[in-house]
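If your schedule permits, I should be very grateful for your opinion on a structural question. The matter concerns a single protein, recorded as an amino acid sequence and a row of C-alpha cells. Could you please explain, in whatever detail you think fit, how the C-alpha cells follow from the sequence? I set the record out below, with my sincere thanks for your time.

——
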Amino acid sequence: MKIRNGFVSNSSSSSFVIFGIETNIKNITHKMLKDNNYTAIGEYIGEGYDVFDIDEPEMLDFIKACENLYNDNTFTVYQSFGEGTIDLSKLPKTGMAEVRGGETAQGSSYDLNCLFENYCYGSSSGFNKKDILKEMDKFKRKEKIIKIEKK
C-alpha cells in the first residue's frame, strides 16, 4: 500500500483502499513481517484515519501493547496484498478477503515515533508512553525466546 507523506494543496487527507484479510494482531510475529504485508487502520485523526503499514517490529509491538494494556480495539489490522496485481494463491481458501477504503490523515503514522505522537500525546486514547514501552519490552523478550527455542 502507498501512503502519501507529502503535502497536497488545501488538503490534509487522501483516499486509501486496502484489499486484505482482517487479522488478529496477537497472531502476528516479527518474522511474519518479513514474509507478509500488514496494514493497520487506527483512530480518526484530523480529517482522516491513521493508516499505515506495519513494517517495523517495534510498530507491531506498539499495537500489541496497546491492545494488551487497554483491552482496546483502536487498531484494525489487515494482511494486505500490496499494490498492483494480486497473487490469487494468497487468497484464503475459506473465509473472506475484503476491500476497505476511506480517507487517510496527512499525519498518519509511518514509524514508531509517529505512533507515540498520535496515540500518547494528541489523541483521545491518551495512552501512557511509559506503560506502552514497558509492555513492548515484554514482546521483545518473548520474540527472543522464540528464536532461541527454534535453534
User: Anything to note?
Assistant: The radius of gyration is 16 Å. The chain has one domain: 13-144.
